[in-house]
Amino acid sequence: MKKTLRLFRIINMLLIILIIVLSISIFSASAYTTTGVKLNTDYVFSFVPYQGFTELTIDHFRNSANSWNSAAGLTLMSVSGERHNATGYPNNDNKHYVYKETRSDIRAVGQTTCYSSAWPNGNVLKSADVLINSYYQFANSQKENKFDTWSVFVHEAGHIAGLNHTNYTQDASIVMFPQAHMNFLRRYPQWDDINGINAIY
Amino acid sequence: MTAKKKLGLSAGITVLLVSVISVLVIQIVQLSGLQIISLRGCGYDYPMDELVAESHLIARGKFVGDSGAFIVEPTNGADSSVFTDYYFQITDVLRGDADVGDTVSVRLQGGRKDNLYVKNYYDFAPAQGSEAIVFLCKVTIPVGYITNEDYYLPTGTTTRSFYFLDSSANKPTYKCDTYGIEPIVWEDEKESILALSDDMPMNMSVLREGKLEELESDFKNGKLTAAQYSKSVSEISGNSKYAKRID
Q1: Looking at the structure, do residues A24 and A51 belong to the same domain, yes or no?
Q2: What phi, psi does A63 have (nearest 5°)?
Q3: Rounded distance, CA B16 to CA B227, Å?
């Protein structure tokens, strides 16, 4: 009798440990990381797209900005009605350009350059530029051998908002997943992205 | 405590406080002039066949040192940036024009030089002494930050292009693209890379000679007019088109 009770106690103890381990793995999967530099919420960060982007692509940029705004419950960013014809990404001119350049020297599909100072206000973004690297092939939809521009831009906009790559690497649909995939859509902030943006603002 | 002792103590405290304040002011002056440029982005999760095709050199070896940070000034009007060359000593060649024992330079963006501090968040600097299989490409057409020097870039982001191996020889670590799920077994990797290397042609379009040949062929086939051909050739010709390295 005593032995059985002891056995049950051990089993129950093991079960409790198992429940704790499973609960942790299910409920504490948040893995967003932040850059430590956030947007100044006193004004709206406005992207100026390159004139060579189609209106559909620019609509997709706008949707990307809006989806982060919705996730944060704030108007953090927008897309300007202006267009630029500049080349020479990146440029610290406080113009927030979205560039489209064929840059075989940059081994990334999309890239964001953020400018900040060490002191004072080191945690507030001063300016940023985005590159859509046309060394790689893009489309405005899910297509074989092409990257969806919306999916790449929403990721870059997430960096500007203050999010780094997620550590949760089991779900490629998370916007802040580190790698881009062809023939794949990840257009809207997911649970981990939303947790991250709400932790910042 | 005598008055003399009190005075001495007070003076000592004053000197200490002034020293602390001076150190803080110097720090603030240095930091206020420091420009921080943070690079983030998303890399392409190259499947192995494309990774091999895009690579001009695939080798096993060891990172043995680095150049220290230097500035590169592009000619396209973009901001200058900071780079570091990492020296990689080759112990086995799977693809490309290099020999065992050669040391090649692998250039990565990032580092601090003077008042410019470039933080590269999507690539990581390899530690000295770390052993890896590296997938490297050469870009010799003058574009962006490319200088007219002999060096390689990682083919994709470093997480995709550097497969780190344990320093104690063939003990497996994990394939970067599987995020710690699938272990690397060197002999299997080597066999599959060698097989792919035989099948996959190299991407020559990022090499100056390859690009010139491509343009000439397009001109001969009527894809480019004489004016277009001449303009394209002049865009990739001449040393002045390359970015400038400032040590």
Answers
A1: no
A2: -60, -40
A3: 73
- List of chain B residues whose C-beta atoms are within 8 Å of the C-beta of residue A86: 77
The rounded Cα B62 to chain-centroid distance in angstroms is 15
Instruction: Yes or no: say if A140 and A149 are a contact pair by the CB < 8 Å rule.
Output: yes
ipTM of the assembly? 0.82
State which residue of chain B sits closest to A151, comparing Cα positions. Answer: B42
Q: Which of residues 119-178 of A touch B (CB under 8 A)?
A: 119-120, 122, 131, 136, 147, 152, 155-156, 159, 164-165, 169-170, 177-178
Each residue's pLDDT tens digit, A156-186 = 999 999 999 998 878 889 999 988 999 999 9
Chain B's closest residue to A108, CA to CA, is B43
Tell me the two tokens of residue B222. Answer: 């009527």
Strands (E), chain B: 35-44, 57-73, 81-95, 103-109, 111-113, 116-120, 131-137, 153-154, 162-165, 244-246
Tally the domains of chain A: 2
Task: For residue A5, give its domain range.
Answer: 1-30
